[in-house]
From TrEMBL:
The lineage of its organism: Bacteria, Pseudomonadati, Pseudomonadota, Alphaproteobacteria, Hyphomicrobiales. PANTHER family: UBIQUINONE BIOSYNTHESIS MONOOXYGENASE COQ6, MITOCHONDRIAL (PTHR43876:SF7). The keyword DNA repair does not apply. GO terms for biological process: ubiquinone biosynthetic process. Keywords: FAD, Flavoprotein, Monooxygenase, Oxidoreductase. GO terms for molecular function: FAD binding; monooxygenase activity; oxidoreductase activity, acting on paired donors, with incorporation or reduction of molecular oxygen. PROSITE patterns: UBIH. Pathway: Cofactor biosynthesis; ubiquinone biosynthesis. This is 2-octaprenyl-6-methoxyphenyl hydroxylase. The keyword Flavoprotein applies. Residues 12-324 form the FAD-binding domain. GO terms for cellular component: ubiquinone biosynthesis complex. It comes from Phyllobacterium sophorae. InterPro entries: FAD-bd (IPR002938), FAD/NAD-bd_sf (IPR036188), Ubi_Hdrlase_CS (IPR018168), UbiH/COQ6 (IPR010971), UbiH/COQ6_monooxygenase (IPR051205).
Amino acid sequence: MVERTRKEQPGTDIVIAGAGYVGLATAVALKSSAPHLGVTVIDAAPAGVWRNDTRASAIAAAASRMLDRLGCWDAILPEAQPINEMTVTDSRTSDPVRPVFLTFNGEIEPGEPFAHMVENRVLNASLRAKAEELGIEFIEGAPVNGIEQGEAHLTVRYADGKSLRTRLLIAADGVKSRLRDMAGIKTVNWEYGQSGIVCTVSHERPHHGRAEEHFLPAGPFAILPLKGNRSSLVWTERTDDAERLINDDDFVFEHELELRFGLKLGELHVEGPRKSFPLGLTLARDFVKPRFALAGDAAHGIHPIAGQGLNLGFKDAAALAETIVDADRLGLDIGSIAVLERYQTWRRFDTVQMGVTTDVLNRLFSNDNVPVRALRDFGLGLVERMPRLKGFFIRQAAGLSTTAPKLLQGQPI
Ligand SMILES: Cc1cc2nc3c(=O)[nH]c(=O)nc-3n(C[C@H](O)[C@H](O)[C@H](O)COP(=O)(O)OP(=O)(O)OC[C@H]3O[C@@H](n4cnc5c(N)ncnc54)[C@H](O)[C@@H]3O)c2cc1C
């Protein structure tokens, strides 16, 4: 429903800035539960840019339940690789053997793995197709560059002096969110001096759906299974070493890779580009202001040690959509601070908890100090011998909890 309160300025109920995974999931969740609401997505990048995203993400079971409920999972499933098993090792790069300290069996319900590996381009294509099917409007290649607060609306300014009036602006514009700054929301933030090198490798032998996390002195080295004899790597190094590695020639890079990966899957080849992402912790002090809400990395950027960044963002999408749709059904103002505070209360504790957990894990495991290693290996061994505790961790990683938003429990809003 497009309102035209002033003839010269077009308007819509909800503007989402950012057509990444979280912006798209929020748009689809809103529009499929409340089709009468007008939803416009504005993105700084030109249309089609996501087709070049060569990364892959671990999608937790709760997020796949949501994608299924939103009608996106059927298109993703044929290309999603279930994680059947996970092993954790702790050693030095030069150690000839990597003793396994912890193993997880991948199912949370019979036939339902705790996570799938999905290539980002597949995820984006399915969310985008659903958004278009639902009639969500897109404005692309148009960074939002100004926000003005009105009494019962916001004016969102974007490229070439154009503007749109809206009752609610959702900022899903990534970890360096300009909209967060424009709204005057401060962050707690620090850098780790580490970068995550991301690339895809093909290998001779099958991985059988096994994910591996090797804790090495520079940080975690994760091997995550993709469809076919391929794996996605998230390889943490000190930032200067990461820069050197991604600029080294293929021979040097593949040699360094083999030292960490080993040869149990046969000969390795790097497929496509290698990229590195600087790693840090960013937590927004507030998630909402009147007529304004943050979602996804714009609200929280965390270390990828547990592969949970996007899953946290999907939880935001589900909680925010449920908050807005419930308020709309009750005839409340969807942009009022009273409504938006429900979303903030729902999401902030979980986010801070995950941010702190990943921070502590990263400090504990990116460390070669002998007593610290002994202590953490004792801890891993203890968890390995406690099946109930392991079950608890698996359910946490799968994102399943009774307080989860309805979509993440596979229910309609
Ligand atoms: C190395 C690494 C590995 C990771 N692995 C995993 C994993 O396995 N599992 C997992 O759950 N998470 C993982 N993550 C985290 C995950 O990638 C992010 O949490 C996720 O991409 C955030 O999505 P988003 O939609 O919030 O933001 P983004 O993906 O950053 O999208 C932001 C969008 O906003 C747009 N934008 C920016 N500025 C503006 C503006 N001014 N106006 C309009 N639009 C704008 C951008 O063009 C972009 O489209 C990983 C992260 C890293 C760095």
